[in-house]
Amino acid sequence: QVQLVESGGGLVQAGGSLRLSCAASGRTFSSYNMGWFRQAPGKERELVATITSGGTTNYGDSVKGRFTISRGNVTNTVFLQMNNLNPEDTADYYCRARDPDDHWGQGTQVTVSS
């Protein structure tokens, strides 16, 4: 069973930056396709960014050019660097591992004040 633990969320002012981390269990982390998703109050969960086992990345339109996903296969961690944050980025952020079943973390809250 894959277990995921997110960290790095918090309160930041508009224009600021945060770096989220997701630590994953499992001996075959390097084979997982990883992703970050977010859910704002009253809205559906949406794609933020994904990264395949081979390092190919994909981003949601609203975060392109501002967010960067990366992974460390030695540390079993996936990161989300978030720059130039705005209040619309306020949400709970979730890490997902696909192996190929989907596994989710408990989420970390990001609040961007104007």
SSE layout and pairing:
Elements: E1 4-7, E2 10-13, E3 18-24, E4 33-39, E5 46-51, E6 57-59, E7 67-72, E8 77-82, E9 91-98, E10 102-104, E11 108-113
Which whole number gives the mean pLDDT? 96
**In this structure, how is the largest beta sheet organized?**
7 strands, mixed
What fraction, in percent, of the residue positions are helical? under 10%
Strand count = 11
Order of helices and strands: EEEEEEEEEEE
Name the overall outline: globular
- Content of β-strand: over 45%
The rounded distance between the terminal residues' Cα atoms is 40 Å
Unreliable stretches:
none
| Secondary-structure-derived class | mainly beta
What's the alpha carbon Rg, rounded to whole Å?
13 Å
How many H/I helical runs? 0
Summarize, please:
By secondary structure, the protein is an all-beta fold. It contains no helices and 11 strands. It is 0% helix and 53% strand.
Q: If you had to describe this structure to a student in words, what would you say it looks like?
A:
- The mean pLDDT is 96.
- Strands 2, 4, 5, 6, 9, 10 and 11 form a seven-stranded mixed sheet that branches.
- 0% of the residues lie in helices and 53% in strands.
- It has 114 residues and is an all-beta fold.
- The chain is globular, with a radius of gyration of 13 Å.
List descriptors.
114 residues, mainly beta, seven-stranded mixed sheet, 53% strand, globular
